[in-house]
Design brief:
globular, about 40% strand, six-stranded mixed beta sheet, single chain, about 120 residues, alpha+beta
Length: about 120
Amino acid sequence: MDKTPIFGICLGHQILGFAFGGSTFKLKFGHRGANQPVKDLKSGKVAITAQNHGFAVDPESLPSNVEVTHINLNDGTVEGMRHKELPIFSVQYHPEAAPGPHDASYFFGQFADLIEGHR
C-alpha cells in the first residue's frame, strides 16, 4: 500500500471518510461562518474555525484504524480524524482561511513533517 502523506480539508475530509469505509450524514444545521469552536482531543485546545458545510462524517461508521481527533463543541460532530497506520489526516473546517483565525495553521507544519518523513 502506498504511504504517500495525505491531508484532507473540508470536502477532502468527507472523501477520506468514505475512502476509509465510513459514511456521512446531513446536519440539521450546517456549520457556516468563522465562529465554530473545535476541540483538539489530544491537546485539549479549542480553536475558533471557519467552516461552510452541511454534512459530517459519522464516527460510528469509521473502522477501528481511524481515530477521531477533533470535535465540534456546538454539536459534537467529527471535525478531524487520522489513520492510525498511514500518514493520513483531515479536518472538516478551513485551516487555511484568511483573514481570520490562524488557530489551525499548525496542520500545515504537521503535513510538511509527514512529507519530509516520506522522502
